[in-house]
Every structure is written in structure tokens, then in C-alpha cells.
Amino acid sequence: MGKIKLYSFPLSPPGRTVQLTAKALGLELEFHSVSVLVKEHLTDEFIKMNPLHTIPVIDVDGFVLYDSHAIAVYLISKYSPGNPLYPSSDLEQQARINAILHFESGVMFARLRYVGDAIQKASQPGQVPQDRVEYALQAVDQLEALLRDGPYLVGDHVTLADLSCVTSFSFLDVMLPVERAKYPKVYGWYERMKQIQGYDEINQKAVDQLSGVI
């Protein structure tokens, strides 16, 4: 098996999705830190790999791929086809997972960035305009609705949909004044996700780091 190089940053939710996926598959990643804080993703060397200059990026024996969802699907399909995280033989299940992946990138992560930008520009730590808070909280409302029929986002077990959403939600939970009592399904799911393999070392560590600076 070729060496899998991951170019990412520990605080990147999409990067952590790839790490959680690899951990679930028993894959070893050679981690290369690319700090967006000092604009390492804008170097000529990195842009040659990814013209969109986003993280994460993987390099597997010269095959370079970016976008966390594309990477996670590739890793599952290549190294563990049929894995229930993203089952190759069940197109309906794949379609449901894909729908949630689009929700995560188009809604949850997008609104996380919207709030994050406001925090960076705020004159006081943690100060976010109320309209941005309310807009971001709509994503949590939608997540609660998506969990109405079961313990996980697609069916009764963890899938790639859950791995992707938990990395973004865990940061929203730090950044926003979320009323836990209002979202019982979300927080029940969140507690279950904290039990998955590699959660503490990959995701909780990043959550703790973010909590220390907000």
C-alpha cells in the first residue's frame, strides 16, 4: 500500500474529517502541517498541488486530491470498499450520505466560517454580531431535524455523514451560545460521536485548543 500523505492543519474541520475516516479504516497518514494562520496554503509549492489553495490535500504515490469529502470517499472506496461508512453496494444509502455531505459543506461549514470570520474581526474576544449568530444557529436547527428518525444522520450506525458533520458542529458548539435543552437529538448524537475511535486525539484536542483562544 502506498504512503498516504495528508496536508492539513489540526484546527481544520475538513482535515479532521479525513483523519477520523483514516482512523476508522485503520490507515496510517503521514501528516504534513499547513498552517493557514501564517498562509502556508498560499505558497507556490502548495498551490501547485491544489490551485484552490484549500486544505486538506492528500498525495498517494503522486495521486493528489483535495476536498475532504472527495478524499474520504476515495479512501473508503480504495482501501475498504463496502465499508458501512460509505457502502459501495447500496446506492440509496450512498445517496443519503451524499445529501448530508452537501449539507455539511454548503450549510454547516459555510456558516462556521461565517462566524469564525466575525470572531477574528471582532474588537473583543468572542464578540459576534447577533445576525451572524442567528444565521449560524439555523444550521443547528437543521441538524436537529436531520436527526429526528434515528441515533445517527443516516441510519442506525456511524457513516461518513456523521464524521463530516461532527467536526464542524464541535466548533460551532464552542463559537455559539447554543441552548443544549433546545437540541436534545443533536447533543445526544454529539455524545455518541465522542465515543468513536480516535475522537479524543483528533477532534477533542482541536476543540480544547479552540476553546482556549475564544
From TrEMBL:
Biological process terms in GO annotation: glutathione metabolic process
Cited Pfam families: GST_C_2 (PF13410), GST_N_3 (PF13417)
UniProt keyword terms in alphabetical order: Transferase
Keyword Lyase: no
Location of the GST C-terminal domain: 90-213
Signal peptide per UniProt: none
Broadest EC class assigned to this enzyme: transferase
Enzyme Commission identifier(s): 2.5.1.18
Reaction(s) the record says it catalyses: RX + glutathione = an S-substituted glutathione + a halide anion + H(+)
Domain GST N-terminal stretches: 2-83
An example molecular function term from Gene Ontology annotations: glutathione transferase activity
Entries under PANTHER family matching the protein: GLUTATHIONE S TRANSFERASE D10, ISOFORM A-RELATED, GLUTATHIONE S TRANSFERASE E11, ISOFORM A-RELATED
Quaternary structure annotation from Swiss-Prot or TrEMBL: Homodimer.
Annotated family: Belongs to the GST superfamily. Theta family.
Protein name per Swiss-Prot or TrEMBL: glutathione transferase
Organism name: Aedes albopictus
